[in-house]
Amino acid sequence: MFGLLRPKSFGNVFKSVTRILPQLRTYVSPAINQLLQLQQTEICADPPSRGLVLGVYADEDDKTDAGVLTPSAWRYNVQKTAGRLLEVLRMSGPMPKRGEARILFAVEPEKVPYYSAVAVVGLGKECLGYNSYEVLDEQKEAIRRSVARACMELAFLDTAKIEIENCGHAESAAEGAALGIWAYQELKEIKRRIMVPAIDLYTHKDELCDIEGWRIGLQKAAAQNLTRQLQEMPSNLLTPTAFAQTVVEVLCKSGVNVEVKVEGWAESQSMHAFLAVGKASCEPPIFLELSYYGTSAEERPIVLVGQGITYDCGGLCLKRLQELVHMRGDMTGAAVVVAACRAIAGLRLPVNIRGLIPLCENVMGCNSFRPGDVTKAMNGKSIEVQGTDHEDVLVLADALLYAQNFCPKFIVDIGTTSGMMRNALDEAACGIFTNSEILWQQIKHASMHTGDRVWRFPLWNFYTKQVTAGAASDVQNYGEGRGGRPCKAAAFLREFVPCGQWMHIDATNVMVTNGKAFEYIRKGMAGRPTRTLIEFIAQTICKDTAPKLNIKK
Question: Positive or negative CA dihedral for 238, 244, 248, 250?
């Protein structure tokens, strides 16, 4: 029979294939038979309008593993496809690995199937869970990675709507789907924009579905996408004033109060360190104060401080061109605080939040602050400017001092204070500096669930001595020595936290992603660590999940 496949001309090839096609159909399985019919009659079919994402468990190290469908996938396989889904999946090769998706078409027997494309995603082994070595819940991360990959591939096929099963954890599935399909394309022509399908949870009448988990996942993903949107906006469009206007529009609809304080107010508060950074720009500095009351007004708030340098060229200490390209994202801390406040309000968490965001530009001009200048913070401490490219700590210093006015439970500041974090951690995790073991354990626990990990760095007196060793001022914004820049930046900030629990998050290294480290985040601004911050705050107010320290006296 196979000798017929050697004709001498194209016409003979066509005749031979036509002649042997009925013979092939007697040897192949019903699933392949259906695919042959599809190729003959529906080659020019319309692109899929509705897609479905289902999961399969399999050992990635064993290529012969036949795979086990999730409960939702098994019901669909039996009730909707009469077993064809699993049959075609197994015939297509080894089971998909974590972070992979396999698209199958027309697996339903109906002539016009309800789901024109079904993506089966790899979830790894069924026994995946918390990996103490990786400090990561591998099951949840596998769900995010695989679901995101499936949604991105279905979106590439112009699928209008995608339904996703919970894959064992609805919150993670929602995060992966919403993060994966998002793209910043507001400035593109409509015809050049990629398809962004609608997503929904796939449910079955015989199965309990975690609608609440799905909703929480969408809220967290929407918050991270808001951070990404603010980070991606060009700095000529998102000036300090434009940032403030955007925050008012976004948060006031969510029940978060926004106070916009101008340059004169900052002068009245003696925020000379903050004002020194922004005085070279024609854009006036602005200070935002966000307020959310989720519980009694007498309850002490958690204060979040976000660095808001809407563009940082380094001042007179000009950055290199390769660094300038991404410096529109130097307001990552501010964007994270805004997005976290919106999510906290949307989730109605029973907590009071104060968000403090100093906004300005660090550019060159006739009024630029210079290396060697000395300025004073709100508490009267003198600060020697050793480098204008280390302005971030100056901006945060006054905001940390102002935070003391609210008698906070604790203070968390987020900034991009040292590019050296990239050398230490790459994109793997944010850097954490804190004077509280409890806060460290809580945010570590939160990051394990979100997959957006953190890692603790030392906050030793060794670094404090390096930033307070100057003869002409109380502190220096760079300090002595050549190394340890992230630790010295944190030591500098600690000088402006007179009391109470405090944590500094350095997000410099996770500001931008190459699109390969995490399948659910496209290349560009990453929006991290928004979800971890939200989860951290949620866990600090939940006594059942917050980790407790057992210290023997």
Answer: positive
Q: What is the pLDDT of residues 390-422, one digit of tens each?
A: 999 999 999 999 999 999 999 999 999 999 999
CA distance 322 to 320: 6
Across 302-381, where does the E strand assignment appear? 302-306, 308-312, 352-362, 374-376
Q: Residue 195 class from Cβ within 10 Å (0-12 exposed, 13-18 middle, 19+ buried)? A: middle
Nearest to 146 by CA among 128, 122, 163: 122
Q: In this structure, are residues 429 and 528 in contact, taking their beta carbons and an 8 Å threshold?
A: no
Query: Do 261 and 289 form a contact (C-beta atoms < 8 A)?
Result: yes
Q: Report how far apart, in Å, the C-alpha atoms of 90 and of each of 94, 96, 146 are.
A: 7, 10, 18
User: CB within 8 A of 273, min separation 6: which ones?
Assistant: 375, 376, 377, 378, 383, 394, 395, 397, 398
CB 326 within 8 A of CB 376: no
Q: Considering only CA atoms, which of 515, 533, 536 is closest in space to residue 524?
A: 515
Return the DSSP state at 1.
-
For 38-62, the pLDDT digits (tens) are: 443 343 445 558 999 999 999 988 8
The candidate with the shortest Cα–Cα distance to 359, out of 258, 277, 451, 453, is 277
Residue 28 pLDDT exceeds 70? no
Largest CA distance in the chain: 94
> Which token pair is 92?
């297509």
**Rounded-to-integer distance, Cα 29 and Cα 9, Å:** 30
290, 341 contact by CB (below 8 A): yes
Beta-bridge partners for 306: 414
Q: Which of 43-47, 221-225, 347-351, 355-359 has the lowest mean pLDDT?
A: 43-47
- C-alpha dihedral sign at 151, 155, 156, 160: positive
Supply 210's token pair.
């975690």
Q: Exposed, middle or buried, 215 (CB in 10 Å: 0-12/13-18/19+)? A: middle
Q: Is the pLDDT of residue 189 over 70?
A: yes
Which domains are present in the chain?
50-209 (3.40.220.10), 218-540 (3.40.630.10)
